[in-house]
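@channel anyone free to eyeball this complex?
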Amino acid sequence: MTALLELEDVEARYGPVHVLHGISLSVEEGSVVTVLGPNGAGKTTTLRAVSGTVRRAGRIAFAGRQLDRLGPDAVARLGVAHVPEGRGTFAELTVWENLKLGAYTRRGSIDNELERVFTYFPWLSERRRQQAGTLSGGEQQMLALARAFVQRPRLLLLDEPSLGLAPVLVAELFRIVRELNEDEGLTVLVVEQNARLALQAAHAGYVLEAGHVVLAGTSAELQANDAVRRSYLGY
Amino acid sequence: MVDAATSRLEGLRGGAIDPGTATVVLFLLGAAIFLLIGCLQSKNFAQLTIEGLALGSVYGSLALALVLVYRATHVINFAQGELAMLTTYIAYELMLKGLSYWTAFAATLAIAFVLGTVLQVTIIRPVQHRSVIATVIVTVGLFILIDGIVNWIWGGDFKFMKSPFGNGSFEVGGVKILHLYVGMVIVVFASVVLVWALFRFTKLGLGMRAAALRPAAASLVGVRVDSMLAIGWGLAALLGAVAGLMAEPTQIFLSPGLMQPILVYAFAAAVLGGLESPAGALIGGLLIGVALTLIAGYKPHIGPITITSELQLPFSFVVLLVVLLIKPSGLFGRREVRRV
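replying in thread with the prediction:
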């Protein structure tokens, strides 16, 4: 398998504050990869560097294209869907309009995708006319995921999907992510606080600390690693 | 617009009538009943009301232009009126060159759209990320610039323009109605409906709404936010051109000061309707238009003061002030529906 996404020595900063000090990681096509680490380690910034929502330097290759000079809309059009922390749903628009925005970069009919989306999220169909802001936090997160799916991306960037959700919803969400990966071949790079769930869903993972990659490996390797177990899995 | 209306309706059905909404409904209902009774009682009143609605539709379309820009960038474009005046001069020039009124009208709308887009890209874009104040000051500068350019090219003297609807009139129940007033209302509402349909039913419109609401999230789904803002300026300039062209025949001459009072009325209309609300801008425009015409027609007395047409501008400032003091979100200002 070849890497769909490859970061080499990527740096990023917000104004004068350096957040990433040369990150290198790769995501194989068809895999789920997770990024773990404490608060402020640069997990979210890593995703933002890929999607172009933060100023970055270094080499970012996606499906043979260089992303490091592209803005977020251009990256999205190449087939990268970024579900940001806090979901990025359009609260003022309806569920239906949110889904249609997912297909903004696509031409032609999206009926096929919508039908498939409704098999994963059946409740969305009945509530398509509802204003997205009136959905619960969990529902909004599902909507964000559904919208990303309609985008038909080759790579899904998922930032803290579990934030503020009840545990039962988080489990459901990761089940769907895994399903999308297995049934649709969707490649996923997910940042997650809940390391146990993330490592269960992922094939491989990276651990960031203070803007550096300190550990990398398959999920099994990371789960067996003493440092990871002590710091992130709690046993 | 429709979403806000349905959610408000759902609120009513749920039995939870928000006191603010009830006040607004009562106010509008009261205004409508007042006008209806007045029109049935007096032909003069009816005539003034019709004139007020026609002028109000012009204020409303310029107010809508202000709202479009405000929603997208949270900036009031002080040059919106002068831009409308400039495009009216362009129409004048096209007619001098021999184009018929409606050909010149259509060409002017296209030119206005391009002009608005180009101005956003060249003058507004470089400063829009700095600060709101910087952008507002640039629009004030643009106001002065356009005013100067028009005076330089066409001079400050009065120009005659062709009339779009002639001087004819017809009578309904003894009330004389100018073709002009009917024509103004039809043209303004047709253009507003077209712009609304663009926002509501097209992919471009959806992208523009998304870019205005959440630029960061919009760019993540592939919306070119900067282009959307430029197109928004283009559409605002187009609505402004409609306002300018429909305002001109209500004056005897075309002059560089054409849109200056109208901009003030449009501000009052936009604030009255709620700066975030397109429907509010239109209704605010109609209310201001009718109120101003009735005041000028009846010259009401408040104590020793007689209010004449000279007080129309101060009156609209009073409206502005009262709305900002009592209900800053205006009649139709959105309350954000958000759950975390």
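from a first look: The CA atoms of residues 39 and 98 of chain A lie 30 Å apart.
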